[in-house]
Write a structure and sequence with these properties.
CATH class of the largest domain in chain A: Alpha Beta
Distance between the termini of chain A: 28 Å
Number of domains of chain B: 2
CATH architecture of the largest domain in chain A: 3-Layer(aba) Sandwich
Largest interface: A-B, 24 and 17 residues
Order of helices and strands of chain A: EEEHEEHEHHHEHEHEEEEE
Oligomer: heterodimer
Shape of chain A: globular
Largest sheet of chain B: 10 strands, mixed
CATH superfamily of the largest domain in chain A: P-loop containing nucleotide triphosphate hydrolases
Strand content of chain B: 15-25%
Number of strands of chain A: 13
Distance between the termini of chain B: 25 Å
Strand content of chain A: 25-35%
Number of domains of chain A: 2
Number of helices of chain B: 12
Strand order of the largest sheet of chain A: 6-7-8-3-9-10
Chain lengths: 259, 438
Amino acid sequence: MNELALKTENIDKIYKLDGRQVRALSDVTLDIKKGDFLSIMGPSGSGKSTLLNILGCLDTPTHGTAFLDGVNVTKVAEKNLCKIRKNKIGFVFQTFNLMPWLNAIENVELPMDGTKKSKIERQKRAHKLLEMVGLSKRIDHRPHKLSAGEQQRVAIARALANSPAIVLADEPTGNLDAKTKYEIMKLLGKLNTEQGTTIVMVTHDSKVGSRANRVLFLNDGKLLKKERKGSHSMTFKCSNCGKEIQAEDTFCRGCGKKL
Amino acid sequence: MIIALGLSVSILISIPSGIMANQKAAEQLSANYDAYLQDMNTEITTAATLLEVSLSPVFTAAGFGGRGGSGGGFIGEFMTSESFFNETVASDINNIDGVATVIPILEKSEGTLETRSTRFGEFEFLKPEYTIIGVPLDDFILSNYPVLPSGIIEGRTLSEGDSGVVLLSANNTEYFGVGVNDQVNILGKDFTVVGVYTTTTIGEMKHLYMSLSEAQAITGIEGEISSIDVYAENEATVGSVYVDITAIYAEFYVNTAESRLESITSMAERQVSLLEDAETDLLEIQTVAYMEIGIAVVATSLIVLFTMLYTVRERTQEIGVLKAIGFSNGSIMSQFMLEGMILSVVAGLVGIVIGTIGAPIITQLLLTGLVPSTGPESQFVGRQIGIPGLTVEATIATPTIELLLIVFAGTILLGVIGSFYPAWRASKTSPMEALRRE
């Protein structure tokens, strides 16, 4: 159990929209090992973000349970969830979401606010993290003075501030050009391999998704039963008959089984 | 936003200062009036045998601060008329049984004619610059009767045989720009100032005393006087002397100690009713003031409320991010409360600046009916009562330090109240919803 960073069991998420029930997630069960680099892919509206929000303790499932670092977070009271978010989870957003009036190092220090670390310790830690993401020379710059790629690096450093058990990234390259995209993915890969950081990434970009060790597919709120065949490729095999299938496929072209 | 808040706060400062200024004016007026009545009472009882004879009604006691307003009627600082009569009347009255002494007096004001519009229409007034008082310089009279003012502060008083000399009230030395032993030109004739006496708080008029004959000569009304102080032999004969004088001179007003006491009683009663009226007015003004304060209080909190609601709305995404990176509801709430408080502190400071500078203007705009803060109109209370020189100082709405501190603290409190709901909403924002908003 301790080997698992994250685990969900039969998660359902049902929203009420204009009196209608909308099922965003349906019976999602997954394990994420510590040190894993997982990407969750799927078309928009497939429930990727909902799943990420539940994994990140921003949302609660209608049914089912979620464990984070061995703790059943579905049983944790709302007011205590912030502590879990602060200490166990690091978020990376598509739009970076840095505080515009804080400079790079202050943005990285922000999550350490209210922790036991002294001001000097926080500064040291933030400086080290910015160095790690390659921004040690731009610590005094405010977000608007940084390029999009640099902003996302600051955001990644911020996500790592409190040494979280898991980093959740929601379309982290969605707002970046091809070259920067590559750099950010390289950075995330480096964090995973060198620091052993567990990363869960949501994306609909198959090139980006392919950088992960493991790719899961969501469609219509359900986890598709297909796995990636080889590293750095986006072809999969059917878990039933073993025939090669495409990332976009929702049923196996070999056995006809719904994926 | 800050300016709007500041204006709102400045109203909170101005209105109470306006009210305080008005209360101060009313208290000052009441105190002045009390002192005035007190002084008059003393004068009346010490001059129990005195009958004042003149062609105009007189309501002040003789010898008061020098002399009172005999010889003319006053409306506030303005003299309406002065009437003179032949001095032979004095010697005729001297022959009446029971009369001990008669003192003929000439009192004539010199000044400029001014047209003033009042609530009763336009009137031409003589605005007296100074008043010449001519008294007989006779040793017996001077030593036995309070004809000349007491309270000499410099030089000496007048005495028998003086000629070409004057005794000035202290405020007149400023008017003429002279002191003791200086020469002063009065209506074309040079006089030497022999002494200066203090004016009382009430006796704001500028008087100068000289011998009766010289006063008659320079004013050009030879053989005429404006009033006679008649002293009866004793209190028992005052009644018969009064009857005799009024029988012979029906056109004269004769004031006895008794009638003066009556008039002072009626003045005291009038004072009470005037003060009551003033209080009623003040209460009405205060009711309006409290409503305006209430509106300003509500406005201040609403401005803070809407500003903070807007801020929270604008920064929903930021709130979502803060929540996602682990900030608690409490810390988000306190951050927005703090921002609301900073807003109100800045607004409070702006308001204090505007309020301190603009209090008189704001007060006049919002509290019509208050004692006007500046100019001659500020003396209108005294003029209404109709007592010469009884005025209040210009009451300028000046906020006190205490008031500023109270309003400042109050503004911060209103800031807290106004930002409570927005801050609470911010803290309750779902991070997911907040992040979804672009």
